[in-house]
Amino acid sequence: MAHTEWRDAPELPDFSLLKRLARDQLIFLLEQLPGKKDLFIDADLMSPLDRIANVTILKQHEVDKLYKVELKPIVSSSDQLCFLIRPRIQTVKWISDLVNADKVAGRFRRYKIIFTPQKFYACETVLEEQGVYGDVTTDEWNFYILPLDDDILSLELPEFFRDNFLEGDQRWVTTAGSALHLLQSVYGSFSKVYGIGRCAKMVYESWRELMEEGEQRTRQPEFAKVFLVDRDVDFVTPLCSQVVYEGLVDDLFRIKCGSVEFGPDVTSSDKSIKVMLNSQDKVFSEIRNEHFSNVFGFLSQKAKNLQTAYDKRRGMDIQQMKAFVSDELKGLKQEHRLLSLHIGASESMMKKKTKQDFQELLKTEHSLLEGFEIRECITYIEEHINRQVSMIDSLRLLCLLSITENGLLSKDYRSLKAQYLQSYGIKHLLTFANLRQLGLLEEQQAGETLTVMESKVGKLVNDKTVGKLTDAFSSLAKKSNFRALSKRLALVPKSGEEYDLRVPRDMAYVFSGAYIPLSCKLIEQVLERDGWTGLEEVTRMLNGQEFAVTGAPNPRNKTDAQRIVLVMFLGGCTFSEISALRFLGKERDTYYVKQIEYMVNIKLSI
Amino acid sequence: VLKESKRAVNSILVDDDDEDEEDVERVSWSGEPVGSISWSVKETASSIRSGSEQSFPKIDTTPSLSKQGSGYSLSSLFKAKSKPGAFQSFSESFSDTSSRTYAPELRKPKSDGKDVVSDLSPEETVRRMQKGRAFSLEKFRSLQDKLLLLDEAVAVYDGNVITAVLIFLKKSLSKEILFRELMARDVALRHYVHYLKEMGEQKLLVELLKALGRTEDMALMHYKEHLNIKDESRRRDFLKSCLSLPFSQDDATHVQDHYTLLERQIIIEASDKKAVAEIFKKFPRKASILNMPIITTLYYSCFYHYGESEGTFSSPSNIRKTFRISEKQYILTALGARAKLKSWFDVDSLFNTKNWLGYTKKRSPIGFHRVVDILHKNSAPVQVLQEYVNLIDNPDLKLGGALKYKCHDIVINTYRDLKDRQQLIVYREKLERDSPEYRKIQELLNNVQIRWKN
């Protein structure tokens, strides 16, 4: 069974400092608008705000009423309105409309927008164009990083992936750079930076710029190394069904901002319960990284132990009973409650996963990863689509097929797409266009289509630019090379070998021993070699864009910090990857702190 | 095991009080105590300036925070790290709006002095924009200067600044010229496209894509609009207008289908809403059929309009033909619908084929084990199940199905054919004494002519 605590684990930096900084700045900003005010908060900022402040703090700074931003007309009698929002054009348009409506009604109020984590010129332009620039003042709340757990930091930017990888908008690059800069200012300099991916490179550059102008910090560093990785370096991993406990909870119930809502089927009552999932939950912290086939045995053992502990009460005299109640009972009751919740969750997990023919689904995924019986896989996917079961699972399988096979054969692509649209709605042809743009779901082609596109454009521009365009187009049509990568890095263990999931021997355990997450394998290899030497072929297949930079010399005396690595996933990461890195950390006596843009649970729709 | 442990946990009697309730549900607004601001200030401040042995990062040695001296206050802490523009107090900026220190556009700040700001190079201007400091773009009047500015913004990877420059170019260049220049600048182009999308400038976007020769993208962009149209007849008309757009060949077919589908759904919905047929009374419709996928529509038609002639829009055969639905998909859908209604006769005829001698034979494009699954989910009686279990090709799947759905005859015959005496004995024990199945096993076991393998 898992032990999240292991001997000699290095002390992790105290991330509560980040919360405190964010809270203090928020208070400062609220004080800039003295007097009573109503506060409107973006829906997806509610939970992050929950983690760093509370209503009392807001009330202390004269926040009268709290509202969620719903882009609808408001009912507020306050003379001062404060908006705490993400820098989104739509929200700013809504605020502009409110202000203009007030103006028409002859109503006088003060308005302040606090953008977090930063403001964008595009948003301010909206204020200007709508004629309310000046009526509305703006500020920035540089709340870059939210610590979700002892070893997880998050930027909580769900739009990062779409903006960066689909739209090609680099607006969050500097945000990520600033987040790294903040970490460095608070926790000291890193000695080494590794990275791979276009975005990773840009983030590094933007961070370096900040460092160059920034103030000097040479305190004892609390991190040794940083690893930046783009999500599109490894699309395979987030496409696989998760089978570690925390991953499954996320797949089924959606973990948002470190907490999950268990419905009545889990709580066996008529109400839902919101639960924080982190290392504070003693039951959860023991099972979160475990393969789910181990979890049930563990939980029932736990239940027996609990029973024994309760049974101690029998035969106690008054004095002992008193001690028992004051020392142990509360702890036991807490554990009892957590235990019933996780047992309930496992139970409904089992129910749902057998109903959906989970085993068959896993088998297909494993075959795709192995490159084995592809025809059968296609037939399975086809039936999955025909039966109109889970739209997202169908799409995940299609993408996995495309990435592992370097695109679908033309006739397969057309037929599967047609059937998908028949089953789930024709509007999803937009989804297919997006997935093609991302390189997640493609039709194999003999270079024809590209040439047609080029020559069309070529008529409009001169030759030099056509060259540039060709580059741009061919970068769009990049190949995933998964098979070759998998072989080179030994991602898929030889089939037929027994894999004891109770005693994992490598990171493959997070996918039932069938696949080592590409992203984590890369991290392991690079750290082992202290760079990319020897991995040239691998990086070539990943379209290059790798780098390794040495910074401040290591302090002579080896400290705990030397063993702490910060891994930043640009575009999100999965709980399976987190579990795999925790496993790696245990093996290599290194501790990984994960910084992520957002927990992805790939949602690929229009 | 799980159930047991759950019961065990639940059976442990502990009086629940409200206080414990909170322990688990405490998620909202639970923060640490405030205060301690001074501590964090001290912590940050003391971490500055201690050595010089750094090679990475390159650091310029002007610690700004230490200059603040002893007057540590919350505001000075943030002032040191943040942009000057952000620190006007509300009252200041409100009462004197003209003196804002920076603005995204052509505004000339009073305080910074116009010469300083307007004579800056593209590099310096972009740098100031990145920092949120005062800047002016009005100096960039020649096309060359504008493009230098844009290229510089792209070179520093700052999407925010790239978009800001594009907004400036949008206002100061004709769209033909801007489009032409963007063609050769992929990064800037994508920012521009995204900006127009977010601003909802559909028309301009379509023009841009057209000018770029990205006609398919343009068509898709236009098509996407239908999602915002709620009224179904307006939506149908809009889809009709999409038919002439330059989609790829495949997508053109799909969009044509989309239009045809909605057109039919509107007709079907209008007549079924007031339908009086028996089936509608027995199984009242739960939702309208509008905007449902093709397969859902087919299911609906197999449920409510089965057996109608191909001439009617609502008949399954018409839908199947119109949307080129594969046999496999059709059988699967029709099977689901007819099984739901427990019309076993219809189910039967779905699989019947006649060979040239006129014998009927059951044939299915989907595995019979799947058929059995679907029938079972719709609680088909054993007699029906048994017939289909018997048709399963794979012997293991067949036996598995027979065991699962208690098709005794099949199980018994299979074991008999395997000459597996032991399994028969085991199976006999599961049956009711003196039931026909029980007796059948008994007879087999007494049959001396069978050579058992065990």
TrEMBL record, chain A:
<keyword id="KW-0653">Protein transport</keyword>
<dbReference type="GO" id="GO:0031902">
    <property type="term" value="C:late endosome membrane"/>
</dbReference>
<dbReference type="InterPro" id="IPR036045">
    <property type="entry name" value="Sec1-like_sf"/>
</dbReference>
<dbReference type="Pfam" id="PF00995">
    <property type="entry name" value="Sec1"/>
</dbReference>
<keyword id="KW-0458">Lysosome</keyword>
<keyword id="KW-0967">Endosome</keyword>
<dbReference type="InterPro" id="IPR043155">
    <property type="entry name" value="VPS33_dom3b"/>
</dbReference>
<comment type="similarity">
    <text>Belongs to the STXBP/unc-18/SEC1 family.</text>
</comment>
<dbReference type="GO" id="GO:0015031">
    <property type="term" value="P:protein transport"/>
</dbReference>
<dbReference type="InterPro" id="IPR043127">
    <property type="entry name" value="Sec-1-like_dom3a"/>
</dbReference>
<dbReference type="GO" id="GO:0005765">
    <property type="term" value="C:lysosomal membrane"/>
</dbReference>
<dbReference type="InterPro" id="IPR001619">
    <property type="entry name" value="Sec1-like"/>
</dbReference>
<keyword id="KW-0472">Membrane</keyword>
<dbReference type="InterPro" id="IPR043154">
    <property type="entry name" value="Sec-1-like_dom1"/>
</dbReference>
<dbReference type="InterPro" id="IPR027482">
    <property type="entry name" value="Sec1-like_dom2"/>
</dbReference>
<keyword id="KW-0813">Transport</keyword>
<protein>
    <recommendedName>
        <fullName>Vacuolar protein sorting-associated protein 33B</fullName>
    </recommendedName>
</protein>
<dbReference type="GO" id="GO:0016192">
    <property type="term" value="P:vesicle-mediated transport"/>
</dbReference>
From TrEMBL, chain B:
<dbReference type="InterPro" id="IPR040057">
    <property type="entry name" value="Spe-39"/>
</dbReference>
<dbReference type="Pfam" id="PF04840">
    <property type="entry name" value="Vps16_C"/>
</dbReference>
<feature type="region of interest" description="Disordered">
    <location>
        <begin position="1"/>
        <end position="71"/>
    </location>
</feature>
<dbReference type="InterPro" id="IPR006925">
    <property type="entry name" value="Vps16_C"/>
</dbReference>
<feature type="domain" description="Vps16 C-terminal">
    <location>
        <begin position="143"/>
        <end position="244"/>
    </location>
</feature>
<dbReference type="GO" id="GO:0006886">
    <property type="term" value="P:intracellular protein transport"/>
</dbReference>
<feature type="compositionally biased region" description="Acidic residues">
    <location>
        <begin position="14"/>
        <end position="24"/>
    </location>
</feature>
<protein>
    <recommendedName>
        <fullName>Spermatogenesis-defective protein 39 homolog</fullName>
    </recommendedName>
</protein>
<dbReference type="GO" id="GO:0007034">
    <property type="term" value="P:vacuolar transport"/>
</dbReference>
<dbReference type="GO" id="GO:0005770">
    <property type="term" value="C:late endosome"/>
</dbReference>
<keyword id="KW-0967">Endosome</keyword>
<feature type="compositionally biased region" description="Polar residues">
    <location>
        <begin position="37"/>
        <end position="71"/>
    </location>
</feature>
<dbReference type="GO" id="GO:0005769">
    <property type="term" value="C:early endosome"/>
</dbReference>
<keyword id="KW-0968">Cytoplasmic vesicle</keyword>
